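Table 4 source record.
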Amino acid sequence: MNYYEQEIISALTAGNVNVVCAEGGADEVFTRVMERYSVHGSKIDWSRVEGSVEEQEWNLDLHSQSFERFFRYAVSRFGLSGEVVYVGDDLTDFALSGSIEAFEGLLGAIFEVPHHHYFLGDDLDWCMCFSMEGSMSFGFSQGY
């Protein structure tokens, strides 16, 4: 387990949050994401995800605050509920699974890790992405 994974696990433990490691890890989740979403290289091509919502925060000091606001907006706007899978694209290898409410309590710790963050509906029917460059995206997979 690397430093960033330990930091997230520490936040889970400190907050007594019910989130568990999902089977297969990040690589397996990303393989499934590439099958469900239009991609360009190794990233989702949000311009090809019909009805996607995108925002940008250019001020690095406001990334975490803006990401948390966008997360809550998407949850409310699209009525998201149930189990969520979280993966990062570089500095963590695990996939975490838990409720949206559980992840809301971890957003600050998660967004401290400097990589792209993906939150996905349990069956990958929706995806929320936050990039190191400040982009925030949400969309439903093809066929939804």
